[in-house]
Amino acid sequence: MFNFEPSKMNLMSYRSHHCGELRISDVGQKVVLSGWVQKGRDLGGMTFIDLRDRYGITQLVFNMDTDESLCKIARSLGREFVITASGEVTERSNKNPDRPTGEIEINVEDLTVVNPSKTPPFTIEEETDGGEELRMKYRYLDIRRDTIQKKLIFRSKLALETRKYLDSKNFIEVETPFLIKSTPEGARDFVVPSRMNKGEFYALPQSPQTFKQLLMVSGMERYFQIVKCFRDEDLRADRQPEFTQIDCEMAFVDREEVLDTFESLTKHLFRSTLNIELGDFPRLDYNQAIEKYGSDKPDLRFDMPIHNLNQTVKDSGFVVFDSAEYVGGICVPGVADEYSNKDLKKLTEWVQRPQIGAKGLVYAKFQTDGSIKSSVGKFFNDDQLLEWLDRAEGSKGDLLLILAGDKDNSLKQLGALRLEMGKRLGYLDSTEFKPLWVLDFPLLEWDEDTQRFYAMHHPFTAPAAEDIYKMDSPDREVLKNLKANAYDLVINGAEIGGGSIRIHDRKLQARNFKLLGFTAEEAEEQFGFLMGAFEYGAPPHGGIAFGFDRLCAVMNHQNSIRDFIAFPKNNMGRDLMINAPAPIDKEQLKDLGLDLKD
Ligand code: ASP
Prior knowledge:
Elements: H1 6-11, E1 30-43, E2 46-53, E3 56-63, H2 68-76, E4 82-91, E5 104-115, H3 132-137, H4 139-142, H5 146-168, E6 172-173, E7 191-193, E8 201-203, H6 209-217, E9 222-230, E10 242-251, H7 255-274, E11 283-285, H8 286-293, E12 306-308, H9 310-313, H10 319-322, E13 326-332, H11 341-352, E14 362-366, E15 372-374, H12 382-391, E16 399-405, H13 407-424, E17 435-439, E18 444-447, E19 452-455, H14 476-480, E20 486-491, E21 494-501, H15 506-515, H16 520-533, E22 541-547, H17 548-555, H18 586-591
Parallel strand pairs: 3-5, 6-9, 11-17
Antiparallel strand pairs: 1-2, 1-4, 2-3, 4-5, 7-8, 9-10, 10-22, 12-13, 13-16, 14-15, 14-16, 17-20, 18-19, 20-21, 21-22
Helix pairs in contact: 5-7, 8-13, 15-16
Residues 207, 209, 458, 498-500, 543-545 line the site of aspartic acid.
């Protein structure tokens, strides 16, 4: 074990420079560096150590001939030891062009072992040998890796630029409480038992929605908050039970002003952190997005739109098409020759997987030699197939893929197929950014299981002005088609932000609650505070929230948000490092009035 030498440390400060900053112009300077031992190499009479801190790596060199005892200490250092070294900056004979400090090294004259380290459970390098679980258990070591540090530094910068921009536009950052009452926003609440009010519970906010609206009633005019939100959902895909939003609200605005403000914020963030100029964001309305891309968050890095083939393929005696509500297809450019029967069989199995759920796949290959091969060649002649190709705006060499069934599901399946083909063709590797606004979402979503409507966005979203009179219709189909004054920001197929113009009138809010199946008493019980506030001069208002973790990931072309969160949870909602959640002891349970059994 190493002896600590506190007296020596007093004489030597930890650093004059950090490990990323010395250059050839510093040769001759006496410097002090501190950091972690990345790795060591012994070459004959020389020992080299890569010393790492947050800023970079600098090579230290020890010479057996000049100082044998120092060199011996250097040789005994293990990975991740914390050391302080002082010496002279010298020019390297063997330069490393891949490293900013690669032209110099430090000829070490003095060395202190500040703190030794056990051998880390995985290598602290860009490409680590540590699996996900191990990395999460020792997340403090994982964060030492440059790649994770860079992501957290990016996140910090993005938050700072968000604050700068919103401050410049007169937004005020206001903190709203974490211990609140449940608000229905589609997900389950995390609840916190109250000790002082036994049998009662707080809920952790799924978002500060009602508070930010109340701040508009309060006359704050422009609010924002970079805020934690909590949703107790099954953690499929890339979700975290606690995540961060850039949450915003504005008074006296219409939709255009909100879109304009947050399009500008997005452009500012790309410019200031990535040096990328985004052009103006295209807009699609919800129905267009679904009809054309089978998704309300289309990835526009490539086109390959869905074509409705109903008019073209029906009434030819092919029962699969004739009996379907909808037949649609996508034209995959240039792959007709290369897709073998075996590939197409595999693709058919792919669309039939339960996650996609299509019954089958019809294809037509328009080969470059002019021949056409189709899975329904028995039912349709070449002229008919060419008509489909024409309808799908394809050309020779293309592969036409067709699904049939009920409209909603077929479009979803075609959307998934489109993305899969885009991925296979390498279109998703593109480093481009394709933002867009999706507008005019439906106000309500019908749920077959519970036989009731849910708010597509949330219950405070205003209906489109021209649809308000339809809200009292007894016809479910009319209600399904009510439009909301709601919008989403989508970038590269990821939903980055969502918001709406809100209801600010008590009576309209009450009508909306009624549509959502609330009795007047239930609405009053749960949201009396908000509806009451609307009676004291509530200004028109609207806002948006950006998913901050996802924005970080998308801006860095990463699929996972986890590495942009310092201490994330796994798919079971566990923090493997602190081992949470965990049972609490009997006394605590008793205190909380939760010792129910016995
Ligand atoms: N509170 C909403 C959400 O979390 C965003 C908004 O409407 O501003 O999705």
